[in-house]
Amino acid sequence: MTDRPIIYSATMIKALLAGRKTQTRRVMKLPTKGQYVRPDIGGWEPTTVGGGSSFAIARDGSRVPVREMVAIWNRTTGKCIAAPHQVGDRLWVRESLRYDWTAKGWLFVADDVSVEAVCGATLETPTPDRWPRGVCPSIHLPRQLSRLTQIVTAVKIEKLQDISEADAVAEGCVEDCADGLPVWYVPGAKMERHRASGGECFEWLWGSINGTGSWDANPWVTATTFRVIKANIDTPEALVA
Q1: Which of 13, 155, 159, 167 sits in a 20 to 30 Å window from 58, CA-based?
Q2: 3-state secondary structure of 227
Q3: pTM (predicted TM-score)
Q4: Confidence label for 53 from pLDDT (cuts 50, 70 and 90)
Q5: Long-range contacts, stretch 135-140, CB < 8 angstroms, 24+ apart
Q6: Residue 54 predicted with pLDDT over 80
């Protein structure tokens, strides 16, 4: 079991809090030079490593079992890369904060809830050199101020565009009905129009986060499924038996 930070936008934080989001996709970091980008002579393929009779050698010379992990390997070079998240890992959520000068305290951007009220902790008053415009970006959120923990329950590696309709729902896309036809949208997101399927909805969501052309690039991604615990990772509620 490994503890890792994970960053989300305010819109996705709202989806986590509402229980709409139980899955997230992140681009796999793969080599991009030479024969690694020659699918005609090999290419990448999902696999697993460890498990079964696999073991590592400890410093004292004893054999230590290696858990099975989701991974991807290159059929040309044989290089194997494990997914960054594995079943049983705990992810502590990083989100943005802003300073409320009226109340003189920090609030979570997603829902304006007081950090002190949720975590029982305070941050210093913002200064121009450290906290420009009174904002603490998600990447700087310390572990002790995280209010959401994710316990990883499943992991798979696939091409981005292979997402299923069920997985689009798990990513936070919502189906509704308009004029007797199904429409899809992301609550709280600034979508110019609704989409006709969960896949189309997620395509828009991915592009809004990762930029123009990111969907068409169709990279290998890790699809991480999790259960959400509305508590800091170091509280008893977030402990994994």
Answers
A1: 155
A2: strand
A3: 0.90
A4: confident
A5: 135/96, 135/97, 135/98, 135/99, 136/96, 136/97, 136/98, 136/99, 136/106, 137/96, 138/7, 138/8, 138/9, 138/94, 138/95, 138/96, 139/7, 139/94
A6: no
Cα separation, 92 vs 86, whole angstroms:
14
Alpha helices (H) along the chain: 10-18, 115-119, 165-170, 198-210
Which carries the bigger pLDDT value, residue 154 or residue 131?
154
Query: What are the tokens at 183?
Result: 């429409």
Alpha helices in 19-159, H assignment, sequence order: 115-119
> pLDDT tens across 62-72, in order?
877 778 899 99
Q: What is the largest CA-CA distance in the chain?
A: 69
Computed from CA positions of residues 218, 25, 85, 111, in that sequence, does the dihedral angle turn out positive or negative? positive
- Which contacts of 54-60 are long-range, i.e. CB under 8 A and separated by 24 or more positions? none
In eight-state DSSP terms, residue 195 is: B
Confidence of residue 224 (pLDDT cuts 50, 70, 90): very high
Give the model's confidence band at 241: pLDDT under 50 very low, under 70 low, under 90 confident, else very high.
low
Q: 45, 91, 87: which is closest to 67 by C-alpha?
A: 87
Q: How many CB atoms lie within 10 A of CB 129?
A: 6
Contacting residues for 233 by C-beta, under 8 A, at least 6 apart = 3, 90, 92, 143, 146, 149
Token reading at 82 = 């494990």
Coil, helix or strand for 176?
Answer: strand
